[in-house]
Amino acid sequence: MKIAVISTLTYGSGGSEALWAKMAKSALQSGHQIASLSFRWPEIPGHLLDLQRQGAQLFFRPRRNTRISRVIGRYTTPLRALGKFRPDLVAFNQGASFDVVQDSEVRRFLRHCLGGEGGGNVPYVILCHANSEEDILCDDDRREASRFFAGAHRVLAVSPRLLDTVRRQIADPLPNGLVVNNPVNLANSNQVAYPPMDGPVRMACLGSLLPVKGWDILFESLAGDAWRSRDWRLTVAGDGHLRGYLSELAHYFGIADRIDFAGFVKNVRELWGCHHLMVFASRREGGPMVVVEALVCGRPVVSTDVGLVSDWVQEGETGFIASAPTVRSFRAALERAWAAKPRWPEMGHRAHEFAVGRADPDPGGTLLRILCEAAGHGTPVGSAAK
């Protein structure tokens, strides 16, 4: 079977690439053919290079939507090259749930490959990783999205909350909707030994240094009067363009001497070997796997109520949930966590058992089975290609 993957991620690599990359690896090992289309970046992300070495075909399109790139794209668009691959199935991997609806080039691909201009009715699957819950689509985009989703064999989302959000935003029950799990990016699922609590409390937050991750909420929450008299340190594990601002913000709040900027951390298990608590103040998420990974490693979590968090974190049992991404709400969740500090090792053990029992041991294989089912199903897509 020939599987084409169109990824709409607008930055080099990220968590929303992990699931389809796992699927593609399984597919290649099983004798299927893979072709992918993504935006071109100065350096090809590692997961794409790995797939290329295993036999996948890679296609790229210009990252900037300038007038020149649009004119050139009409004649040399990589989407045409992807169409010549003649896929048996197309998987749309969307960083946000309505990327394809708002991408005229990909909509042309739908018309060409899936419904007209010599193309056939190729079945397709949509995978959604995140979306802004407060967004409301204009009528034209909503109708376009409804047609696009209705024509899919499956509409996949990485959390129940995300799938419900998509349904509400297009006012459609999406009976073809299904929740799938992202991969847990750990060498193994064993619990990491809980470190001694005879020194400062060591908290960690993993994530890109971007505004959506709520670093400002986290820093201000830890700058309250109650926290000035407590013995704690925070490790910021991630890279991004806010690095300079966050350093200045830490000085502004008077907590710079307690914060360690560690950059991107590859070995997550090693990180949790010397940290007691995961803190995560993100404003918006789909399926934040850093939370799941902390739970699997056996660490209680304090997080805002975003994405899959409320499905994985049990209030007072395995962590604490802030009802809103605000300083007041997150600070209250931190206070509940601090009051329960003697129970953190026990909570971490419960978190590990719960997360290991819930996680999909082979999410790439699960996605591949869904795609194989879709290719055999042959869902007509003519209405979705308009």
Walk me through the topology:
Blueprint (H helix, E strand, L loop, with lengths): L1 E6 L10 H12 L3 E7 L6 H8 L3 E5 L5 H10 L1 H7 L4 E6 L9 H12 L8 E5 L10 H12 L3 E4 L2 H11 L6 E3 L21 E6 L8 H8 L2 H4 L3 E6 L5 H11 L5 E3 L6 H5 L4 E4 L8 H9 L3 E4 L4 H4 L6 E4 L4 H13 L4 H15 L4 H15 L9
Parallel strand pairs: 1-2, 1-4, 2-3, 4-5, 5-6, 6-7, 8-9, 8-11, 9-10, 11-12, 12-13
Helix pairs in contact: 1-16, 8-10, 8-14, 12-15
What would you note in describing this structure?
The protein is an alpha/beta fold. It has helices at residues 18-29, 46-53, 67-76, 78-84, 104-115, 139-150, 160-170, 215-222, 225-228, 243-253, 268-272, 289-297, 309-312, 327-339, 344-358, 363-377; strands spanning 2-7, 33-39, 57-61, 89-94, 124-128, 154-157, 177-179, 201-206, 232-237, 259-261, 277-280, 301-304, 319-322. It has two domains: 2-183 and 362-385, Glycogen Phosphorylase B (Rossmann fold, 3-Layer(aba) Sandwich); 201-358, Rossmann fold (3-Layer(aba) Sandwich). The strands form two sheets. The protein has a seven-stranded parallel β-sheet with strand order 3-2-1-4-5-6-7, with helices on both faces. Strands 10-9-8-11-12-13 form a six-stranded parallel β-sheet, with helices on both faces. Helix 1 (18-29) packs across helix 16 (363-377), helix 8 (215-222) packs parallel to helix 10 and helix 8 crosses helix 14. The longest helix has 15 residues, at 344-358. The chain starts with a strand and ends in a 9-residue tail after the last helix.
